[in-house]
């Protein structure tokens, strides 16, 4: 009798903990405030907190340089903070085709995704994987690529040499 009571009380406690967890964390969904779901990283140039890499983050990365051109984005980049993946590559072939690829742990995540940059907005279309990125704050300065959107999604990357 005592063993069954102990099992019953244990199950009730686990259900209560599970219920509280569901309420606090929204059933697995990220909360809307960056204090719980986001990661705030200091900007090394200004020591201003920026939030990157999570849709729940509310702040936007401030551009370092507003004269960024398409040619500045082309190349291979390694993540410093936040980001899409550990390494990303923007390329333009001889026919003018723009392709984006990304890698994590040495394995490709996205390959041959079309991308464009109009001087203000960086668009990456990986619709074959159900993902389209639109970054409205984009800058390249001192071999550092910084991009984000109004939801705080984005990243900071350093150019590979």
What layout of secondary structure does this protein have?
Blueprint: H1 2-25, H2 34-37, E1 40-42, E2 49-51, H3 70-73, E3 75-82, E4 87-92, E5 98-104, E6 107-117, E7 122-126, E8 131-135, E9 137-141, E10 144-148, E11 154-159
Antiparallel strand pairs: 1-2, 3-4, 3-11, 4-5, 5-6, 6-7, 7-8, 9-10, 10-11
Please characterize this protein's 3D structure.
The protein is of the alpha+beta class and 161 residues long. The protein is 20% helix and 40% strand. It contains 3 helices and 11 strands. The strands form 2 sheets. A 9-stranded antiparallel β-sheet has the order 8-7-6-5-4-3-11-10-9. Strand 3 and strand 4 form a beta hairpin. About 24% of the residues have low confidence.
Q: Summed up, what is this model?
A:
This protein has 161 residues and is an alpha+beta fold. It has helices at 2-25, 34-37, 70-73, and strands at residues 40-42, 49-51, 75-82, 87-92, 98-104, 107-117, 122-126, 131-135, 137-141, 144-148, 154-159.
